[in-house]
Amino acid sequence: MRQVYALAASGLVLGIGATTVAASWVDSTMGDASFRTGTFGIESNVGGGWSSHSSSGPGVFTYTPSALLIRPGAFSYGPISLRTVPVSPAASVTLQAATVAGDPTLASALRYRVVKSTTCDASAFSTGTPQFVVGSATVFPSLSTGSSAGAIALPTGGVSPGAPVALCFEISLPGTSANWSNPALISKTATPTWQFSATP
Prior knowledge:
The protein is α+β, with helices and mostly antiparallel strands.
């Protein structure tokens, strides 16, 4: 039994010695690298040039015919284009429900649809196979309806901004007998504001 203990102790001593010798052969060299985050952002153009419009200074649509003269049964069309800024990754964009200032009766009566199109008139919603972002060929949602999540895909930006995606907004006041006979809709104003929320 004493011999077994002696061998165990001898192995323990050799183990410590081996560790000490190995440590003396350790060396190191260092390297480093610099990292900088890129940019992410989108901007819009409603006809007056590209800008990162904020909630305090949103881009103002130009509607044809003028939405200021809308009546039951009438439609107005307004274009907008979106793109990513330079060096930005691709963006997945969701159109939020509108926030509306002005007369609530008119706001609740208005309807809208949105398609991806470089043409912005009635034909954009009826010719070929329209790419609807909001609504459909037969569905005219209220202003309180937004798009599905990530309904608009914007390509990545390189040295230059990403390729733009053109959208067309259609605003209408349905020509129903209820709207024609409702005096609360006469000479009223409503101003919807839409937010485009983007994520990489």
